């Protein structure tokens, strides 16, 4: 009996101790549930919060009298304007319009309640009209109730997957409903590993077996529509080393490229041969490469229509080159001295006429010959740029004008093409790099030279905005492009021009913008010397004379041919005097002239 009494007493003790414990647990559960519901429905509750705040401001103002009543209304109006300003900066067009309407309505109701009192019919009307205005918001933000059964019934699973505690990610839900569901753009696909970025979010998309990630790129427009975004905000990229069924998707809810990023100081890293040139939409720096350590020089191509910012890109490349003691820049200004005038007195050779351009290229070929001997002496390999043997960078703006034949005047620029081809093909080993700027990144603008196209594609290729779709676009690595360069907008949504906006041919196929250098002429220059072999080569004089090899409009084709022949003859004479064998092949190589030009010049020379 005693024992029974003890057990009963123990039961009472346990139940009295467990009572508060259970109620605490219940309170915690209730709190959690309230928190979950709050988080889950916070977007839907936003209009109610707005109506409540409007009512409170109106009620406070109506309870006060005299000028004091203006204070809550003024504060309320400022809050409405502030709320709209916040949304205007960040949200989509629909949200901006909605926020504007809501802010104006709220301000109006605050004043109405302040005048009419908050207890009368005005307050009921406020709630009724507020609810009516909320309907479009609720319709637009309808989301299916997440399935939290697993979360509730299996606390262990809930702990193992912390992401589930705040309910399913709405971005994943949208994907599943509008993209991954049967009959949608990518049936059976999954969005996983969603993480936040400063300007949006990123995730991994996994497709059904048998699918390739290129199909995600084809669904880009659907993805933009599902997430309510303007063009150019979704980027799909392969994941190196991962299955072709998966890809990384970057979604930008804001466009960071709207902000101009300024170049600050020279950053050419001698250890890598690179410097930062562009920043991607997700904040990564893309680098221009002058050389590969141990692998020789690399070439570059910058393309874009007038005003796209390509000369500024060349300015940046030249500034980095001029500031380094390992790069010796030479400039050909195909814009007849008007494209890069501020560099005229800042580099050793600046060619602004087609004739001077030819002289400069022949000089570069002679330097290459001299370096050939140096490389032979060092037992092969390639020239590693150093202060004693700098990289020779030949930068040609408006290169298409010198590389394409001019059908109007009948000018054949085959000699310029051949010289550039030779420099592009052989320059790598000898530390000679070509940096060309054209209006379109196509072989056509390179005078149809597939040799130049292939060599340049192996280096840094920057494609800024173009106006028309082009065939043979060089900004392509085999995978489909997120968009054509002709699809890049001319202005950002805020109306500012998109200068410097484009793509760099790297594994990051994402919109990028070049760093802006404001005053390249104010940047310091490092005196760089050529190696002794090259330094002993006679430097041609740039006359700025535009006659001679270039046919101008007033000259008849016959006169043009004879003037061209005179120039060829002069070149041949110079080459023979410099020790070149007088056979056509050697002379073609040394001068960059065509076989017929060499033959004609030799015939005249020998007369
Ligand atoms: N990355 C950039 N960010 C912001 N503004 C830029 C950028 N690049 C260029 N700009 C602006 O655009 C203007 C035109 O650039 P730039 O002269 O390089 O164009 P372009 O393509 O070379 O045109 P053109 O062939 O007519 O000379 C510059 O003066 C500069 O103000």
UniProtKB/TrEMBL annotation:
> In what residue span(s) does the FtsK domain sit?
283-471
Q: Where is this region: Disordered?
A: 1-23, 555-583
Q: Where does ATP bind?
A: 304-311
Molecular function as annotated in GO? ATP binding; DNA binding
Keyword flag Nucleotide-binding: yes
What top-level branch of life does the organism fall under?
Answer: Bacteria
Give UniProt keywords alphabetically.
Answer: ATP-binding, Nucleotide-binding
Keyword match Isomerase: no
Q: Residue ranges under compositional bias (Acidic residues)?
A: 562-576
Q: What is this protein called?
A: FtsK domain-containing protein
Q: What organism does the record attribute this protein to?
A: Saccharopolyspora terrae
